Amino acid sequence: MGMLVVFFFKILEFILWGVFRSVFPRKTYRNNYRTLSDMEKVTYLERRRQFKGYKKGWLYFRCKEEGLLKAYKQMFKKESIKSIEAKKNE
Fold this sequence. Notes:
Layout: H1 2-23, H2 27-30, H3 38-52, H4 56-66, H5 69-89
Helix pairs in contact: 3-4
């Protein structure tokens, strides 16, 4: 008799766990790296580079590995143009 009660409680626990997880999904799956856009991935990697203290070349090669060079060039194009114009004006 006791085994039967435990069995039904386990089934009830399994059903309630499934309902609870479908209503309240885990937060880690919401902000997954894969779900980010290319520009968001590059900004994430740049913040990571600054936090870890890596050189700027690390970001370029990391973006190259992940196929984000187009977003990398688009993001840092403005900065490179500004630095070139600043050198010309000096």
